[in-house]
Design goal:
By secondary structure, this protein is α/β, with parallel strands linked by helices. 43% of the residues lie in helices and 15% in strands. A 7-stranded parallel sheet has the order 3-2-1-4-5-6-7, with helices on both faces. A 6-stranded parallel sheet has the order 10-9-8-11-12-13, sandwiched between helices.
């Protein structure tokens, strides 16, 4: 097969960019029979390290698709047509969009596979878009992507159910491929490495802290996490605990929780709540290892990759039960109603007070995380390509 890939989201630091990089790198590592053609815009190509065995086709656009697909952006029609026309000139058997975020219309008799990671924008539009115009454009784009696709791919059974219900698709047309944790995430035994990473964030080895990793966006529900944390630390037994939030709160292309951003200017707030900004994987891995608890409080998640990364380090996860996180974490973590900060406080106290339980769940976390891999994801994607052809 000759397989075309939309690689315009390769350089994005968020979850769908990470999915694209790791899954496609693993795919081209295991598949030496099929040909792969990566279509990328010239603006993103400079920062992309594509697999050596991929052919690359560059298209000149007026704006990076990742930037244009932001909360306040809008894809230029001419840019989308340029991408579509260039793809249509290539002899292909399949064309694959690793994310609907950077989708553009394509023409040709080849099969089309589109990955829709979640239905967050459909369920919580008021937390995603800055205007009705942005929302309208998104709905039009995703509607066209679904109608053009032969197969819709997603990353969890939770997301599949949401896609089937929202778009009215038969279940057999939506296929699930899970994600994996990168090799850079695992148990760290080097104490000096941990000390260095913690020191850079104003922490030390004795600091008890709760960790969050992800976007600083309204749908991530950090307001409930902060309120629960504040209530927790007003109790004398937990007055020393800190909250560490890892995520880009300056340059992220998606909406930022403006109230939380304003709180960052409060010195008293910053004493307890540490904002690190974006961190590279090696430093992030150390924080996962040193954290007492990892919390993912989102209203909705397509997969919840940071939870899996934390589990790969043996760190216990508390996650929202209204997302895909219970599906990923299994019996290795605890869950709560994302609207109920009191329940989250109870979960935090349960783990902070019980070292034996935390150690047992940490052991289960390592075992559960080992069930996921990018190699398995890549093999499943290859199977979907073959199913689309058949």
């Amino acid at each position: 097969m000759r397989i075309g890939i939309d690689a315009t989201c390769w350089a994005n630091p968020r979850g769908y960019g990470r999915f694209t990089r790791h899954m496609l790198t693993a795919l081209l590592a295991i598949d030496r029979e099929n040909e792969y053609v990566f279509f990328m815009d010239t603006l993103s190509a400079g920062s992309a390290r594509l697999p050596d065995n991929a052919e690359q086709v560059l298209v000149k656009l007026s704006e990076s698709p990742t930037r244009a697909a932001s909360a306040d952006g809008r894809r230029g029609v001419m840019d989308m047509l340029r991408m579509g026309r260039r793809v249509s000139r290539e002899p292909l058997d399949i064309f694959f969009f690793p994310s609907v975020y950077t989708y553009f219309p394509v023409w040709g008799s080849f099969r089309k596979v589109v990955a829709i990671h979640d239905v967050i924008a459909e369920k919580y539009p008021e937390l995603i878009f800055k205007s009705r115009k942005n929302r309208l454009f998104w709905n039009l784009k995703t509607w066209l992507a679904v109608r053009q696709s032969d197969v819709v791919m997603t990353v969890s059974e939770f997301s599949k159910q949401g896609i089937v219900e929202h778009f009215g698709l038969p279940g057999e047309r939506v296929m699930v491929v899970t994600e994996g944790s990168a090799d850079s995430f695992g148990v760290v035994k080097d104490r000096d490495r941990l000390i260095g990473a913690l020191s850079a964030c104003g922490l030390d080895m004795d600091t008890r802290f709760i960790l969050y990793v992800g976007g600083i966006a309204p749908h991530k529900n950090l307001a409930v996490l902060v309120r629960a944390f504040t209530a927790l630390t007003q109790l004398s037994d937990y007055a020393d605990v800190k909250l560490v939030l890892v995520g880009d709160y300056r340059d992220d292309v998606f909406l930022i929780d403006e109230k939380l951003k304003a709180d960052m200017g409060n010195p008293e707030f910053r004493e307890k709540v540490i904002f690190t900004g974006y961190l590279p994987d090696d430093q992030l891995n150390s924080l996962y290892n040193a954290a007492r608890i990892f919390v993912l409080p989102s209203f909705c998640e397509g997969f919840g990759l940071p939870a899996l990364e934390a589990m790969s380090c043996g760190t216990v996860v508390i996650g929202s039960r209204t997302t895909s996180v219970p599906e990923v974490v299994g019996d290795a973590g605890l869950f709560f109603d994302p609207h109920n900060e009191t329940e989250l406080v109870e979960r935090l106290r349960t783990l902070l007070d019980n070292d034996r339980l935390r150690e047992e769940l940490g052991r289960r976390s390592l075992e559960r995380a080992a069930e996921f891999s990018w190699e398995q994801s890549a093999a499943d994607v290859l199977g979907i390509f073959q199913a689309a052809i058949d």
